[in-house]
Amino acid sequence: MASVFRSEEMCLTQLFLQAEAAYCCIAELGELGLVQFKDLNMNVNNFQRKFVNEVRRCESLERILRFLEDEMQNEIEIQLPEKYPLTPLPREMITLETVLEKLEGELQEANQNQQALKKSFLELTELKHLLKKTQDFFETETSLSDDFFIEDTSGLLELRTSPAAMTGKLGFTAGVINRERMASFERLLWRVCRGNIYLKFSEIGVALEDPVTKEEIKKNIFIIFYQGEQLRQKVKKICDGFRATIYPCPEPVAERREMLTSINVRLEDLITVITQTESHRQCLLQDAAANWHTWAVKVQKMKAIYHILNMCNIDVTQQCVIAEIWFPVADTGRIRRALEQGVERSGSSMVPIMNKVQSKTAPPTFNRTNKFTAGFQNIVDAYGVGSYREINPAPYTIITFPFLFAVMFGDCGHGTVMLLAALWMVLNERRLLSQKSNNEIWNTFFHGRYLILLMGIFSIYTGLIYNDCFSKSLNIFGSSWSVRPMFRNGTWSTHVMERSPYLQLDPAIPGVYSGNPYPFGIDPIWNLASNKLTFLNSYKMKMSVILGIVQMVFGVILSLFNHIYFRKTLNITLQFIPEMIFILCLFGYLVFMIIFKWCRFDVHVSQHAPSILIHFINMFLFNYSDPSNGPLYKHQQEIQSFLVIMALISVPWMLLIKPFILRASHQKSQLQSSMVQKDSTEDVDGGNLNSSIGSGKRDPAGAHGAQEDHEEEFNFADIFVHQAIHTIEYCLGCISNTASYLRLWALSLAHAQLSEVLWTMVMNIGLRQQSWGGLIVVFIIFAIFATLTVAILLIMEGLSAFLHALRLHWVEFQNKFYAGTGYKFCPFSFKRILDGTVEE
Do 400 and 524 share a domain, yes or no? Predict the structure, then answer.
């Protein structure tokens, strides 16, 4: 349980593996996911590392898998295995390469054949429709003679070479063009040929498919009549420019019919061949879909292992792999067992060797989490990863974060809606986890489902305290206010209660207030009063100040545990104690005055109660002669003067003493080092070198080196400036942070007012309807009300309160004890790699 409140204790170990067993050992460590490898080849280019060829082979396999995935997209669903496959051995890469390359080649060949067949099918289909449309055109023009047109064998219709033919006969060209180009094509033909052509076109009613892009295309059939060789050349160039397809179209009717018959036969044969080719392609894709996920997992695991091997060193004999790993000390046994399993799987006989080494760099920070605490830990880590072994704020955030959110979002109705949404995600988390979504907003809400659950529970609690449910009060225990039936002697009748828009509650009026407080929360009668905001403002403002100061004092207390753990006794006496004196003497006393005034002055004497704000200002000015603001208790002047003096003393206590003590300690260590060096030199000069070594005295060179290092590390000016910054930041921060907690009051008031405005402006419209048609209006109005409630009050206001609670924890609470200057422990884990959550 200690790891919950403080990060795990980490260990840096040098790992020696036999070259043949290194792959399997790293694979077992990847399955375990508790080891972070250090890159021992930082100065080596990625392309010059030992296993770069294996990584490239894995990337080639990934390219094939992406190609297969693209082919299966929107056609065949990839089958997910029940569990992830085991990590393949290195020799399995050859088998996997053979299978995938063969499958890729067969699929590419099938795609090429299918594309060629579909291209032929498209051309024959276009020619079929062209012949039909041409036949229809010639049948309508029955006045033309049989030898009016003549065509060459290339498909372009040419005029006869005789002079008689040159003057009397027409040639024609028939083809197919994309429908969107038809208007430009017709316009250009008319302008280039100067109107000396006749164009006839018709749409192809059948949907055609592009053999390459597989998209639907629309085309038109055209026939162009012209006279002369020059026009024929111009028409040909224009057709080529617009990528129009020109087909042979014989002029005799018999030849056209014979060609159409042969085309129909060829189309039937093509349909059969295309069906068989598509069936063969589907079989290949079915085989790929059954094993695709398994192949992808194996390739990802192999690639990850070779990346880790590239981070290791290999000795000169090429027989030993050397790695440096960070891991939690508590998991040492599990890591040893994983290495033993890797050795057994590889068939090696050499046991891995683990040597603990000292590191000059700070260890990584590892906070063990589960699905409940992960969301709160992410909130803390978003501010900054904690320093090694310092207090972890996440356990305290589990309670304080949803509570401060609920103080701003206090409404039991809205809290219930939030609670139900979170419960749905929690109860269906297994099914929702299996449906992996790429929607970032959904993933954010789902990963914070337990955080939302607690925020809903705390919102219901604070909503009951505020007695606020969709801006309405719940009269559960009965009001403590009594109303007499007649308007006499300062009391109100029922008619006045219902009609008066300026009803104000005054507990000091005799007979109206019973004097007994509402059992839980705020009396519901305040919801009717016009001075409701005046009453709630005072209550929520003082409550915000109390909660803020209590949380800040708790943060300062947590810093004590850091000082004790790291054995910084100097920080306890010269930092923690003056910090506590400063905050308690000033702001702790403010909390005392608020609570004392609540207890000391009841409803009958509250009008004569002194102002806490004026008292607090006069406390700093040492002004106790204000006749309009009497004392709260006896000897108030002496106590307040003592508290202010103690707070003022704590400032130089924090600022000056610690730097000078550190300077004196440094000078003392320098003096001791020089004395040790002098004694060692005398021993060497006197011939007592052996006795000096035998007695365990320090080497003079070592002492001198340590002295130089210590001199380089210590800088009095830097330490003094750092302490001055800390003192100023803390003293001013106590004031600004206390004021910052007033956002609890402001957001709570804003949420309540928005909820009341939404009810008044929307829901009241439907509730005022008294006819039978009002039922339909109520349903419509309620739908609008529910939509606006979810969109504005739950989502927008909820996010606003969430961000403000986040700021209160990051800036006002955590800065008292949390440095957040560490770096995160990122273990080598197959699960994180396959889930896509691994951090670079």
Answer: yes
CB atoms near residue 664 (< 10 Å): 10
Whether the Cβ atoms of residue 383 and residue 814 lie closer than 8 Å to each other: yes
CA distance 331 to 247: 77
521 and 614 both lie in a single domain: no
Neighbours of 770 (CB within 10 A): 7
CA dihedral 56, 59, 65, 68 (to 10 degrees): -80
In a domain, 361, yes or no: no
Instruction: Identify whether the C-beta of residue 5 lies closer than 8 Å to the C-beta of residue 388.
Output: no
Please state the rounded mean pLDDT for residues 753-781: 78
pLDDT range class, residue 225, cuts 50, 70, 90: confident
Q: Mean pLDDT for the chain?
A: 84
* Residue closest to 409 by CA, chosen among 488, 469, 345, 324: 469
Does residue 682 share a domain with residue 541?
no
Average pLDDT, integer, range 627-650: 88
> Is the domain of 529 the same as that of 583?
no
Backbone torsions φ then ψ of 224, nearest 5 degrees: -115, 125
* 640 and 536 in a common domain: no
What's the pLDDT score for residue 478?
A: 79
Sequence-ordered list of residues with C-beta below 8 angstroms from that of 351, at least 6 positions apart, any chain: 340, 343
- Over residues 477-517, the pLDDT tens digits come to 877 776 554 444 445 555 665 566 656 676 666 656 666 77
Q: How do residues 105-130 score in pLDDT, each as one tens digit? A: 999 999 999 999 999 999 898 888 88
pLDDT, tens only, 538-562: 889 999 999 999 999 999 999 999 9
For residue 321, which of 128, 522, 41, 120 has the smallest C-alpha distance? 41
Please state the domain count of the chain: 3
User: Is the distance from CB of 830 to CB of 304 less than 8 angstroms?
Assistant: yes
* Cα within 13 Å of Cα(272), Cβ side: 6
| CB hemisphere CA count around 639 (13 angstroms) | 14
Q: Sign (positive/negative) of CA torsion 436, 441, 445, 447? A: positive
Mean pLDDT of all residues in 158-164: 35
423 lies in the same domain as 544: yes
Examine residue 776 and state whether it is found in any structural domain, yes or no.
yes
Among 660, 700, 663, 664, which Cα is nearest to 680's?
700
Name residue 10's beta-bridge partners.
Answer: 328
567-571-577 Cα angle (round to 5): 125
- pTM of the predicted structure, to 2 decimals: 0.79
Q: How many Cβ atoms are within 10 Å of 195's Cβ, its own excluded? A: 8
Domain boundary at 203, 228, 251, which? 251
Last residue of a domain, one of 677, 710, 737: 737
- Domain extent, residue 593, equals 568-686+718-737
CA–CA gap between residue 583 and residue 645 (Å, rounded) = 13
Beta strands 171-178 and 245-246: pairing type? antiparallel
Are residues 396 and 466 both part of a single domain? Answer: yes
Does residue 830 have a pLDDT over 60?
A: yes
Sign of CA dihedral 786, 791, 797, 801: positive
Residue 763 inside a domain? The answer is yes
Buried b (16+ CB within 10 A) or exposed e, 630-654: eebeeebeeebeebbebbeebbebb
With a cut of 70, say whether residue 161 has pLDDT above it: no
Name the least confident of 165-179, 325-339, 693-707.
693-707
Rounded CA separation 699/705 (Å): 10
Q: Does some domain include residue 506?
A: no
Q: What is the pLDDT of residue 838?
A: 65
- Beta carbons of 372 and 450 less than 8 angstroms apart: yes
Instruction: Assign 394 to helix, strand or coil.
Output: helix
Pairing mode, if any, of strands 171-178 and 208-209? unpaired
DSSP-assigned states of every residue in 42-95: TTS-GGGSTTHHHHHHHHHHHHHHHHHHHHHTTTSPPPPPSSPPPPPPTTHHHH
